[in-house]
């Protein structure tokens, strides 16, 4: 069973959809603000600043202040979207996110721009392979990784309407459309993009389209893979994941994040406690060497071929028939 | 300490109507009073808060008594005479914002909030009790009158900058007051916020530094020297007032005279443990708990 084919051919930088959606929301809601750390260009806020010059709060290169200021703006009745490169937002301002946003419960949208290894050659200081693990550890803060432009817009709208804080990855590395037309986003709900009984591939963000391609490669070898887009990493869709464990008996997770504590960790926590099945966690094993995003994804086996091969190896290791 | 009749420690805090009415009366009295009566009113309120702090910390078996006592006059002046707030409407959008960035002095804040009627003074007996809303550090979801959850140090000023920015963006004139410790200024995030506040010309923002010259283990001078402190704030573009942090008239003046175009830093020179002779300037009183005999002696001094 596969859903209706997604729209918008070609590859998309999700920051573009983010910027357009933010402007659309700001036109309807005078409380919407953007808060950034000198990252006007890299957060795609130039057009926003053009139309709403007073509603871009740029605090300069000061992430801890940026997050505290966002909390204060929310205290004053505004709906701030904090926009900064994910490594600096989540790393530098980790305690502010914990205490000022989550513990204080201010409805602030934390947008980790250009996550994972999007900054490629700039090296590990500019990569955020840790953001999922760090954010997942903070209270009940939602952690959302949209797979494409449409899902980015839908997740933004959901979070803005929720009245609670959340962390969203806003991708920079161009990706194809993978989500079904008009599906929207709901926290705690994963989307099964392809059905299958032999193995489940659970992927997020840049890896979703690659997981779908991997499923095609596996089908050619007689292995029917279920593909799930788990954009809501926290909370995870318990029902869908456990049903996949029961019905397929093996799970491979794929994420552009370190293999400790991210999507793989979340799925393993759930499955090991409720319906243990063999698993393989595919992701980034360590701080990366030099290379473009495309090169590094390939280097770490985060490709359709890599996912397919790990799936076959998993099935062989556990002699699943 | 008098235990509230039948009220569980975990019960939500509710408005103390009688306490609030008495506070309103005091505010009216204050407005109509001359300078020396005003000073007497504030001194009397401060004695009451200090006594409640001593009893609260004894009852809980923990707290930061030295800093609670050094910050009391600052809190009392703000809540009895300056802040435009309404305890019966803690979420009133046009309220002045008060943030205790040195959140470990929660007992002093709770005693002050109780004296305004945000909740009953009897609830102070639940400070730090299991499941109590009165945690060791303030929680805005549990305590009316608390604007943001502080505790880690260095967090209150950035949030205050956000509040003052919100006021300006909304074209409003409500003010934001934030109280910091002096040791707290060793945290770098404060200076990010100081730079930002000045750049954004936030003249509805007042930061008050409780300059008691001590921190947890030793004096600030022996740990990480802050001087010349007034010069630092001036260099960051702030209007700076250095005053006696136990002089109500000086505090009032610093909190109410205008400072157009720039935020104000009030360096309030204080004494850690102020009001209890054997605690004054004692570094050990950062978080030591007084014995029953010491409590009795302290309350006697405060009543005098």
N-to-C series of helices and strands of chain B: HHHEHHEHEHHEHEH
Shape type of chain A:
globular
Q: What pattern of helices and strands is seen along the backbone of chain A?
A: EHEHEHEHHEHEHEEEEHEEHEHEHH
**What is the helix tally of chain A?**
12
The assigned CATH architecture of the largest domain in chain A is: 3-Layer(aba) Sandwich
Q: Indicate the radius of gyration of chain B in whole angstroms.
A: 18 Å
Overall shape of chain B: it is globular
How do the strands line up in the largest sheet of chain A?
Answer: 3-2-4-5-7-6-12
User: Greatest interface and its residue counts?
Assistant: A-B, 29 and 34 residues
Termini separation of chain A comes to 22 Å
Determine the structural class of chain A based on helices, strands and strand pairing. alpha/beta
Please state the structural category of chain B. alpha/beta
Distance between the termini of chain B: 20 Å
The unreliable regions of chain B are: none
User: Which CATH class of the largest domain in chain A?
Assistant: Alpha Beta
Give the helix proportion of chain A (percent range).
40-55%
Overall residue-averaged pLDDT value of chain B = 97
Task: Characterise the protein shown here.
The complex is a heterodimer of chains A (321) and B (304). Chain A is α/β, with parallel strands linked by helices and 321 residues long. Chain A has 2 domains: 11-176, Rossmann fold; 191-317, 3-Layer(aba) Sandwich (Rossmann fold), CATH 3.40.50. In chain A, 40% of the residues lie in helices and 19% in strands. Chain A is built from 12 helices and 14 strands. Chain A has a 7-stranded mixed sheet with strand order 3-2-4-5-7-6-12, sandwiched between helices. A 5-stranded mixed sheet of chain A has the order 9-11-10-13-14, sandwiched between helices. In chain A, helix 3 (63-75) packs parallel to helix 5. Chain A is globular, with a radius of gyration of 19 Å. The two termini of chain A are 22 Å apart. In chain B, helix 2 (35-60) packs antiparallel against helix 10 (292-303), helix 3 (65-82) crosses helix 9 and helix 5 (156-169) packs parallel to helix 6. Chain B has helices spanning 17-32, 35-60, 65-82, 106-116, 156-169, 189-199, 220-223, 229-235, 248-256, 292-303, and strands at residues 97-100, 176-181, 205-211, 239-244, 264-269. The mean pLDDT of chain B is 97. Chain B is α/β, with parallel strands linked by helices and 304 residues long. The two termini of chain B are 20 Å apart. Chain B is globular, with a radius of gyration of 18 Å. Chain B has 10 helices and 5 strands; from the N terminus they run αααβααβαβααβαβα. Chain B has a 5-stranded parallel sheet with strand order 1-2-3-5-4, sandwiched between helices. Chain B has one domain (17-277, 285-303): Rossmann fold (3-Layer(aba) Sandwich).
């Amino acid at each position: 069973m596969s859903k209706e084919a997604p729209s918008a051919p070609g590859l998309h930088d999700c920051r573009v959809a983010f910027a357009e959606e933010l402007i659309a929301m700001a036109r309807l809601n005078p409380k919407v603000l953007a808060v950034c750390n000198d990252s006007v260009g890299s957060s795609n806020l130039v057009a926003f600043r053009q139309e709403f010059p007073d509603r871009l709060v740029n605090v300069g290169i000061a992430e801890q202040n940026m997050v505290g200021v966002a909390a204060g703006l929310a205290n004053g009745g505004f709906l701030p979207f904090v926009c900064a490169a994910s490594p600096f937002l989540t790393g530098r301002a980790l305690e502010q996110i914990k205490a000022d946003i989550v513990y204080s419960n201010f409805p602030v949208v934390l947008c980790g721009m250009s996550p994972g290894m999007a900054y490629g050659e700039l090296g590990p200081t500019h990569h955020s392979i840790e953001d999922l693990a760090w954010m997942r550890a903070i209270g009940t803060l939602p952690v959302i990784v949209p797979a494409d432009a449409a899902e980015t817009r839908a997740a933004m709208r959901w979070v803005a309407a929720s009245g609670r804080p959340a962390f969203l990855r806003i991708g920079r590395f161009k990706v194809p459309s993978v989500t079904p037309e008009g599906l929207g986003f709901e926290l705690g709900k994963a989307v099964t993009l392809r059905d299958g009984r032999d193995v489940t591939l659970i992927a997020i963000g840049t890896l979703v389209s690659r997981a779908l391609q991997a499923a095609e490669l596996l089908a050619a070898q007689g292995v029917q893979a279920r593909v799930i887009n788990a954009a809501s990493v926290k909370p995870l869709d318990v029902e869908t994941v456990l049903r996949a464990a029961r019905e397929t008996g093996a799970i491979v997770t794929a994420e552009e994040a370190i293999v400790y504590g991210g999507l793989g960790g979340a799925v393993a926590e759930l499955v090991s406690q409720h319906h243990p099945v063999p698993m393989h966690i595919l992701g980034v094993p360590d701080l990366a060497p030099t290379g473009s995003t495309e090169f590094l994804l390939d280097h770490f086996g985060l490709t359709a071929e890599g996912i397919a091969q790990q799936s076959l190896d998993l099935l062989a290791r556990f002699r699943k028939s | 300490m008098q235990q509230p009749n039948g009220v569980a420690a975990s019960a939500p805090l509710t408005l103390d109507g009688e306490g609030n009415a008495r506070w309103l009366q005091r505010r009216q009295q204050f407005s109509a009073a001359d300078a020396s009566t005003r000073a007497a009113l504030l001194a009397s309120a401060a004695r009451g808060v200090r006594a409640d702090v001593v009893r609260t910390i004894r009852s809980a078996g923990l707290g930061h008594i030295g800093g609670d006592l050094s910050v009391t006059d600052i809190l009392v002046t703000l809540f009895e005479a300056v802040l435009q707030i309404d305890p019966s409407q803690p979420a009133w959008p046009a309220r002045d914002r008060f943030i205790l960035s040195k959140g470990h002095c929660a007992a002093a804040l709770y005693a002050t909030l109780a004296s305004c009627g945000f909740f009953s003074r009897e609830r102070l007996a639940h400070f730090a009790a299991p499941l109590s809303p009165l945690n060791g550090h303030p929680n805005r979801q549990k305590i009316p009158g608390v604007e943001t959850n502080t505790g880690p140090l260095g967090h209150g000023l950035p949030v205050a900058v956000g509040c003052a920015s919100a006021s300006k963006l909304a074209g409003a004139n409500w003010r934001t007051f934030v109280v910091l410790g002096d040791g707290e200024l060793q945290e770098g995030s404060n200076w990010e916020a100081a730079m930002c506040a000045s750049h954004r010309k936030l003249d509805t923002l007042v930061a008050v530094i409780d300059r008691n010259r001590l921190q947890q283990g030793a004096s600030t001078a022996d740990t990480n020297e802050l001087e010349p402190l007034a010069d630092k704030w001036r260099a960051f573009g702030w209007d700076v007032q250095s005053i006696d942090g136990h002089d109500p008239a000086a505090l009032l003046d610093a909190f109410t005279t205008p400072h157009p175009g720039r935020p104000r830093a009030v360096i309030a020179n204080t004494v850690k443990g102020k009001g209890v002779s054997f605690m004054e300037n004692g570094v050990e009183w950062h978080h030591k708990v007084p014995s029953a005999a010491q409590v009795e002696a302290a309350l006697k001094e405060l009543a005098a």
